[in-house]
């Protein structure tokens, strides 16, 4: 139900936006000979509106079936692909005049924009194609529903035959692609979240650049940085082969998603991260050897000056350079730059400020992952923290249950979406409201030490 509500909200907001605020010149789609012969039948309006029931019906029919997640995924990516197309390439049709009646009512509530491809067709086609590949009985229901919707969008004058053909093509591709991911044993939850994060980034960039309003730029700046950070959390999950059971497929997909765009191929990160799991907190821990080399942070609370130095070093990328230098001095393997890596480096250079904010968020999160050892934090006897977080914490610092880092280290074979099930009855958890106080408590300790030294 949560996935359904999230889909309805996101798709509804996007649909309203693309049908009311085109972000470019609108191309008018001309009718074909078939369209001139197609009658307008107001009686098919209820059938046209039945599109709104496709996803709820899917969830109801598949509530006890293994195929529900994959069918939902196929339909969602088909619908969202259509909406993204409308965002970048606005299209519209010239509808028949309707002064009164149900057709006039439909014209008032539904814009002629968002014509090609037809999402009304793409969504049910994607579901029916996937279910047919999986040989599920429900494929017939959604195939018939798809055919009826194809007729309805034409007979209500809401789409033309070209729109329908393009929508059907998107649906077939979405269904076939989902079936391919299933055969490669790809985790569809993680894949869906990768696509959602990129959707946020693409939509944010498109809207900010199209609006050209200066105050939107810092908002876009913050949104993109947080979504880049979230992608790296999913990248961390893929380092443990949770994206796909096929290792080559796992690495290829995550490198395309964020490894190469983020200039950190998974082949470089994985050995260091697995060594971190084996040697957490010791001198062999790569985070101690490389990530915080010559930096103020030593898994201990900082005073004010040291904390400011640490965060400025992250924002200005000085700490990134220190990490790379420490890795090379330790004999780290050189990763030969490839064409995609160089292209990604140029892209990052263009949006350097966004990249540095993303680095800052990652560093703050890494501060919140590990203590300096048992009882360095009062009454906390682990090297690794677990935090209770709210929605703001999940948005900026702890997406995808990375706040349960203690549980992740206890069982790294558990994917991000199953981490809450790793909570034990006796597990303690810190409040996220105490993060700043924890990081900054070195200032209070130093102040108390100074006060004590002045006493006679």
Automatic annotation (TrEMBL):
<feature type="transmembrane region" description="Helical">
    <location>
        <begin position="5"/>
        <end position="23"/>
    </location>
</feature>
<keyword id="KW-0472">Membrane</keyword>
<feature type="transmembrane region" description="Helical">
    <location>
        <begin position="194"/>
        <end position="217"/>
    </location>
</feature>
<dbReference type="GO" id="GO:0006629">
    <property type="term" value="P:lipid metabolic process"/>
</dbReference>
<feature type="transmembrane region" description="Helical">
    <location>
        <begin position="109"/>
        <end position="132"/>
    </location>
</feature>
<protein>
    <submittedName>
        <fullName>Fatty acid desaturase</fullName>
    </submittedName>
</protein>
<dbReference type="Pfam" id="PF00487">
    <property type="entry name" value="FA_desaturase"/>
</dbReference>
<keyword id="KW-1133">Transmembrane helix</keyword>
<feature type="domain" description="Fatty acid desaturase">
    <location>
        <begin position="213"/>
        <end position="421"/>
    </location>
</feature>
<feature type="transmembrane region" description="Helical">
    <location>
        <begin position="162"/>
        <end position="182"/>
    </location>
</feature>
<feature type="transmembrane region" description="Helical">
    <location>
        <begin position="341"/>
        <end position="361"/>
    </location>
</feature>
<dbReference type="InterPro" id="IPR036938">
    <property type="entry name" value="PAP2/HPO_sf"/>
</dbReference>
<feature type="transmembrane region" description="Helical">
    <location>
        <begin position="68"/>
        <end position="89"/>
    </location>
</feature>
<keyword id="KW-0812">Transmembrane</keyword>
<dbReference type="InterPro" id="IPR005804">
    <property type="entry name" value="FA_desaturase_dom"/>
</dbReference>
<feature type="transmembrane region" description="Helical">
    <location>
        <begin position="43"/>
        <end position="61"/>
    </location>
</feature>
<feature type="transmembrane region" description="Helical">
    <location>
        <begin position="139"/>
        <end position="156"/>
    </location>
</feature>
């Amino acid at each position: 139900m949560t996935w359904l509500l999230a889909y309805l909200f996101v798709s509804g907001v996007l649909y309203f936006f693309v049908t009311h605020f085109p972000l470019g010149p609108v191309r008018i789609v001309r009718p074909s000979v078939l369209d001139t012969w197609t009658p307008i039948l107001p009686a098919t309006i209820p059938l046209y509106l039945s599109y709104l029931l496709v996803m709820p019906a899917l969830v109801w029919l598949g509530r006890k079936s293994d195929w529900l997640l994959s069918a939902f995924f196929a339909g969602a990516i088909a619908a969202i692909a259509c909406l993204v197309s409308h965002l970048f390439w606005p299209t519209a049709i010239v509808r028949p005049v309707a002064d009164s009646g149900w057709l006039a009512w439909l014209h008032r509530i539904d814009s002629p924009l968002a014509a090609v491809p037809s999402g009304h067709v793409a969504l049910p086609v994607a579901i029916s194609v996937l279910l047919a590949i999986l040989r599920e009985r429900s494929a017939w229901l959604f195939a018939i529903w798809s055919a009826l919707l194809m007729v309805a969008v034409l007979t209500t004058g809401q789409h033309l035959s070209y729109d329908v053909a393009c929508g059907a093509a998107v649906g077939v591709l979405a269904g076939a692609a989902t079936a391919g991911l299933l055969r490669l044993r790809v985790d569809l939850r993680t894949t869906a979240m990768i696509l959602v994060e990129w959707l946020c980034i693409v939509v944010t960039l498109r809207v900010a650049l199209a609006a050209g309003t200066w105050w939107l730029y810092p908002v876009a700046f913050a949104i993109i940085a947080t979504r880049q950070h979230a992608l790296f959390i999913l990248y961390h999950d893929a380092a443990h082969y949770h994206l796909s059971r096929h290792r080559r497929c796992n690495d290829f997909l995550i490198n395309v998603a964020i490894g190469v765009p983020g200039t950190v191929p998974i082949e470089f990160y994985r050995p260091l991260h697995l060594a971190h799991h084996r040697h957490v907190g010791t001198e062999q821990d790569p985070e101690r050897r490389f990530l915080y080399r010559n930096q103020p942070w030593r898994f201990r609370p900082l005073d004010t000056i040291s904390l400011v130095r640490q965060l400025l070093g992250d924002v200005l990328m000085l700490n990134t350079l220190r990490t790379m230098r420490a890795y090379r001095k330790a004999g780290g393997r050189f990763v030969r730059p490839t064409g995609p890596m160089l292209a990604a480096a140029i892209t990052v250079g263009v949006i350097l400020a966004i990249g540095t904010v993303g680095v800052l968020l990652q560093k703050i999160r890494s501060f919140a992952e590990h203590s300096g050892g048992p009882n360095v934090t009062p009454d906390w006897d682990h090297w690794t923290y677990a935090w209770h977080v709210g929605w703001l914490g999940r948005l900026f610092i702890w997406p995808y249950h990375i706040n349960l880092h203690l549980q992740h280290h206890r069982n790294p074979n558990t994917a991000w979406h199953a981490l809450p099930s790793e909570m034990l009855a006796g597990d303690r958890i810190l409040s996220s409201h105490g993060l700043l106080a924890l990081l900054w408590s070195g200032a209070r300790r130093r102040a108390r030490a100074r006060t004590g030294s002045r006493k006679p």
